[in-house]
Amino acid sequence: MGLMGKLGAPFRGLWAAKSTDRVSAPENSVPSKLVKAQQSRARYFSKSSAGSGDALTKTERRLINTDITTYRSGSDTDTVIRDFSIASPDLSASLNAYIRTAVTGNYVSVAKNLDGTFNADATMALQSILTRFDVLNNYGEGFSNTPSIRALAESLAREFRLYGAAAVELVLDKQKNPIRLQPVSVSTLKFELDKSGQIFPTQEIDNTKVSLDIPTFFYRSIDQDLLTPYALSPMEAALQPVLFMQEFMNDLRRVVKRALFPRLNVKLNSAEILAAMPPQYRETPEKTNEYLSSVVADVADHVNGLSPEDAMVYLDTLEIDYLSRGNVSLNTEIDVLQSLINGKASTGSKTMPSILGQGSSSNNIASTETLLFMKSAEGVQFALNDLFSQALTLAVRILGYDVFVEFTFERIDLRPESELEAFRSMKQSRVLELLSLGMYSDAQASLELIGKIPDPNAPKLSGTMFKYGSTDTSNPYSGTSQGTLNQNLNSDQPTNAKSQNGGKKGN
Question: Are 396 and 388 in contact (CB under 8 A)?
Answer without folding.
Answer: no
